[in-house]
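Recap quiz, item 2
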Amino acid sequence: MKVGIIMGSTSDLDIMKAAMDTLDSFGVEYEKKVISAHRTLDLMCEYAKSARDRGIGAIIAGAGGAAHVAGVVAGMTTVPVIGVPIQTKALGGMDSLLSIVQMPGGIPVATMAINGAKNAALLAVEIFALSDKELETKLKEFRQQQTDKVLNTTI
Ligand code: RP5
């Protein structure tokens, strides 16, 4: 299984890179693609409908502004969708957040914090780790390292 990372524009790449780096650090395979809900509608539909059959186990969808791609993709697949609201200049990303977070009951999108691409990847890793012991061990080590870092810091 691999993760599908999609984003509404190449301008989202700087933020979404954190998801790629995190997945790299866990050795989790992913594919990445620019897919816009308003600029590339056919591509979005093809991508969402074929995701499960192509071995995608989680989709991370980043978008800014009227960030509808995560919800629309979620409506076309049963693969878990993790939304990343991208910070915007005009409204600071509140627009993106509110576009993603309030999905009506029936079609869930796991919504991260604004620019929360790292946590999106970690959530995908957690989903995969449910059926992958080696990945679970890596996650536990990662958590322990975080804890140790705090405990070993003197101020
Ligand atoms: C959305 O509009 C993208 O996700 C991006 O965050 C935002 C701005 O896109 P560009 O105008 O920079 O391509 O579709």
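Helices lie at 13-26, 41-50, 69-74, 94-101, 117-129, 133-151.
The radius of gyration is 16 Å.
End of item.
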